[in-house]
Write a structure and sequence with these properties.
Blueprint: E1 6-10, H1 18-26, E2 31-35, H2 43-51, H3 56-59, E3 62-66, H4 71-83, E4 92-95, H5 100-119, E5 127-131, H6 136-147, E6 151-156, H7 159-172, E7 178-182, H8 186-190, E8 195-198, H9 209-214, E9 220-223, E10 240-243, E11 252-254, H10 256-276, E12 282-283, H11 285-295
Parallel strand pairs: 1-2, 1-3, 3-4, 4-12, 5-6, 5-8, 6-7, 8-9, 9-11
Antiparallel strand pairs: 10-11
């Protein structure tokens, strides 16, 4: 009898995400078991219960998914899980807290594509401003862009928090060129920006028409907000490289549903790779970005 595909979905939150459960089923996982309210100290026991309950051949059909809402916590959980594998008793692991890793991957991959198609320019040396940047999607986007060679300004409501998050991006993930910014100074940052990524809360407009008009070098504006009003004025949820009407530089807009389409494909491929790979894999936002690049 063929063993079923079992995915252990672990989160520190009180609920598992229905989105992640649906995605896992659609990617071929036949059994998804949620573990909620999990603390870091409990990872060892959960991992070793999973790996020692099946033969090495059965473990190819076993995986661990880390959810939650905290980027760094999810990455910590991956590292903790790695420490307690006992080869050949080892399973694949994927982290995507609040879908942030795959959302960031989809947004940056589309940005990279339209930047190249419309302006014959890459992310390298581009000036990127991330609005609402201290959340999970902003952090993952900052690291992906910075590692591609961009100069990143991570903007939040509090300079203290932006400084703390930027330091983590540079120190923990070796991004090197992520700098902090505060929302009240965004007009200044936009003057030299090539790219603006909005990763702020839904239903809040962080970039107005006037901001767009003042961006003389703007090439790409990408918005993850699917709830009216748009996070960036003039960007519709379906836009994928559409020229923004009020932009003096013919900036191209990328909307939330266009981003979501690539995010969906990226998450699907990561979840599928977990049980199709000959060897166990450990997947995070950098792996999600590689799949997103292929999808665009």
């Amino acid at each position: 009898m063929e063993k079923p595909h079992i995915l252990h979905l672990i989160t520190s939150e009180k609920n598992a995400s229905p989105f992640d459960v649906n995605m896992a089923h659609d990617a071929g996982w036949t059994n998804i078991i949620p573990y909620t309210g999990v603390e870091q100290s409990e990872i060892q026991a959960l991992v070793q219960d999973a790996i020692f309950s099946r033969s090495p051949s059965g473990l190819k059909r076993t995986g661990i998914f880390f959810g939650g809402r905290d980027t760094h916590e999810a990455m910590d959980m991956i590292e903790e899980a790695k420490k307690h594998m006992v080869p050949p008793f080892e399973v694949s692991v994927f982290a995507d807290p609040s879908g942030a890793f795959t959302t960031a991957a989809g947004m940056v991959a589309l940005t990279e594509k339209h930047l190249n198609d419309g302006f014959n320019q890459g992310l390298d040396k581009s000036n990127v401003v991330i609005l609402g940047g201290t959340g999970p999607v902003g952090v993952a986007s900052a690291v992906i862009c910075a590692k591609a060679g961009a100069n990143v300004r991570l903007v939040g409501r509090s300079m203290e928090k932006a400084e703390k998050i930027s330091a983590i991006c540079n120190d923990r993930y070796q991004s090197k060129n992520v700098s902090p910014g505060v929302d009240e100074d965004k007009q200044t940052y936009l003057k030299d920006a090539d790219i603006v990524l909005n990763t702020g809360a839904a239903g809040i407009q962080l970039m107005t028409d006037d901001h767009v008009k003042s961006g003389e070098n703007l090439k790409i504006c990408a918005d993850t907000n699917a709830v009216p009003p748009s996070g960036i004025a003039g960007v519709d949820v379906m836009d994928s490289g559409k020229i923004m009407e009020v932009s003096p530089s013919k900036c191209r807009g990328i909307g939330a549903l266009a981003i979501g389409n690539i995010k969906y494909k990226s998450q699907h491929e990561c979840l599928k790779l977990m049980y199709t790979s000959d060897k166990p894999v450990y997947l995070d936002f950098e792996d999600a970005f590689k799949f997103a690049q292929k999808s665009v």
